[in-house]
């Protein structure tokens, strides 16, 4: 699925799509920073305007004042140069696991995109150095925990600012190294941040926005995968393809369910279901699958604008309007739109996990699986009694589903007053984004289990009834069987589940046309 030649993502202050950030994160694309004179002049104009204000002794938040509630504290001119280092120093208190390499690339790309808008008062040199980290894959080691999502992602982004200044640690070629040592080896000079540059790097929504771009891309693939798994489950259970008739969905035309039903109808070749009994209506986990999967698809469509508007915005404070010679103090660091998008996405995603878990429960239960063996065990004869097929896999999928559903509590509802009640209403957008990624990971695990189970069930159905699966389903069976053979005698399935999970996260299998 990956292109043999990476695409190019240009950072020139123009709009980017979330897929471009995802591609950079996975190294399917390379980044280019505009080095033309007009762009350079536009960026440097903001820094020059700030220098002029400093000479005129203007009052600028975070430049001639302290930070946050300390905005009433005046900073003497002799100390303004030291202030940028102070902000990334005292924010060096992050905890938890560190963001992995793709997430860190997405964070760097999101911060670069915002600064390239030209309203942050930074030098073009800062953009070059930030882009240099992304281009050379020198990845700051960033703790995941410590942001309340307003005043932006201060603590995690302090690790980006510190690395630019030659401090803390970074990941290079898979190893965690001291930044100073790596810079010395590569002849890189630490960057001395100018007034406002520490604040501009940290006082924004880059962490939650970068994570949101990754979450959307993963969820878009899950929408497709859940549809194909459902088609295989319908075939294996002798389901009724008429439930997905286009005329049926024309009278309730939500785009997501219409798309899912169309795909299912085509996958099942709109023919009679093999082994179908006299049951008029399938259980909800089959019959209502387009409606469940379609909510995820429509959530992606509706909330794309939230994420891409944030990605393509100046989201720090203050905003430096060099053209009109104004410093605008506001709250653009507030990550409410990302928080809302991620809380919504994780709910829709967990619902898909629940759908696949219910399908899997039908497949393994001889009371509901239309004549398939219990637990999808393929062993017959004397040894059948000691083989248990997918029994434990279904238990595992149920556990992963329960955890995903538990995490749907909206993070944005838990605003806390912080920082001497200056940050008295915060977004929790970064926690929402981290939650969404965890729900996605759990749903991918459920999908891996369901995919192996429906392949087993489809083959058992074909052996029992003699009807071959339709072409699209047969292609998926062949693709999955390249890495995982049918389960006859019981064997540990962890290795195969992990391999399947890796392929899901790499979007290894081409399934349907891309989501528009």
Number of helical elements: 18
Instruction: Assign the CATH class of the largest domain.
Output: Mainly Alpha
CATH architecture of the largest domain: Up-down Bundle
The CATH H-level superfamily of the largest domain is Fumarase/aspartase (Central domain)
Number of domain units? 2
**How are the strands ordered across the major sheet?**
4-6-7
The average pLDDT score comes to: 93
Question: How would you classify the helix and strand content by structural class?
Answer: mainly alpha
**N-to-C order of helices and strands:** EHEHHEHHEEHEEHHHHHHHEEHHHHH
**What fraction of residues sit in β-strands?**
5-15%
Counting DSSP E segments of at least 2 residues, the number of strands comes to 9
The CATH topology assignment of the largest domain is Fumarase C, Chain A, domain 2
Q: What radius of gyration results from the CA coordinates?
A: 26 Å
Note the overall shape. Answer: elongated
Helicity range: 40-55%
Low-confidence stretches: none
Say what oligomer this is. Answer: single chain
């Amino acid at each position: 699925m990956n292109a043999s030649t990476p695409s190019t993502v240009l950072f020139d202050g123009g709009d980017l799509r979330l897929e471009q950030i995802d591609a950079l994160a996975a190294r399917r694309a390379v980044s280019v920073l505009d080095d033309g004179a007009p762009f350079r002049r536009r960026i440097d104009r903001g820094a020059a305007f700030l220098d002029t204000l400093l000479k005129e002794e203007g009052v600028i938040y975070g430049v001639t004042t302290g930070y946050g509630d300390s905005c009433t504290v005046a900073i003497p001119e002799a100390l303004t140069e030291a202030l940028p280092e102070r902000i990334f120093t005292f924010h060096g208190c992050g905890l938890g696991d560190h963001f992995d390499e793709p997430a860190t690339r997405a964070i760097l790309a999101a911060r670069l995109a915002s600064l390239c808008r030209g309203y942050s008062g930074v030098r073009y040199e800062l953009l070059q150095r930030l882009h240099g980290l992304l281009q050379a894959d020198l990845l700051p080691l960033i703790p995941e925990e410590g942001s309340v999502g307003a005043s932006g992602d201060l603590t995690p982004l302090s690790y980006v600012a510190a690395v630019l200044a030659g401090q803390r640690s970074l990941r290079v070629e898979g190893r965690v190294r001291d930044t100073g040592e790596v810079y010395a080896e590569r002849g890189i000079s630490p960057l001395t941040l100018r007034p406002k540059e520490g604040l501009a790097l940290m006082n924004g929504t880059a962490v939650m926005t970068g994570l949101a771009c990754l979450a959307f891309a993963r969820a878009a693939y899950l929408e497709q995968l859940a549809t194909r798994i459902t088609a295989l489950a319908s075939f294996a259970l002798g389901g009724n393809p008429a439930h997905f008739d286009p005329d049926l969905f024309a009278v309730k035309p939500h785009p997501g369910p219409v798309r899912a039903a169309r795909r299912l109808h085509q996958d099942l070749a709109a023919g009679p279901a093999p082994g179908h009994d006299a049951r008029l209506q399938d259980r909800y986990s089959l019959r209502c699958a387009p409606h469940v999967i379609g909510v995820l698809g429509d959530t992606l469509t509706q909330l794309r604008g939230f994420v891409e508007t944030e990605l393509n915005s100046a989201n720090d404070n203050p905003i430096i309007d060099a053209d009109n010679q104004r410093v605008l103090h506001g709250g653009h660091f507030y990550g409410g739109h990302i928080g809302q998008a991620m809380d919504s996405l994780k709910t829709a995603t967990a619902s898909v996990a629940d759908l696949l878990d219910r399908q899997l429960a039908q497949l393994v239960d001889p009371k509901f699986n239309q004549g398939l063996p219990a637990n999808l065990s393929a062993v017959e004869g004397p040894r059948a009694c000691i083989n248990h097929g997918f029994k434990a896999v279904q238990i595992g999928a149920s556990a992963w589903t329960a955890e995903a559903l538990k995490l749907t509590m909206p993070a944005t509802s838990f605003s806390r007053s912080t920082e001497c009640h200056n940050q008295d209403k915060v977004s929790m957008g970064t926690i929402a984004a981290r939650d969404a990624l965890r729900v996605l990971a759990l749903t991918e695990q459920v999908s891996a289990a369901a995919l192996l189970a429906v392949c087993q069930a489809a083959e058992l159905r074909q052996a029992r009834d003699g009807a071959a699966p339709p072409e699209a389903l047969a292609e998926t069976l062949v693709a999955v069987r390249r890495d995982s053979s049918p389960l006859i005698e019981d064997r540990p399935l962890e290795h195969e589940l992990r391999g399947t999970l890796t392929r899901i996260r790499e979007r290894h299998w081409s399934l349907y046309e891309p989501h528009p």
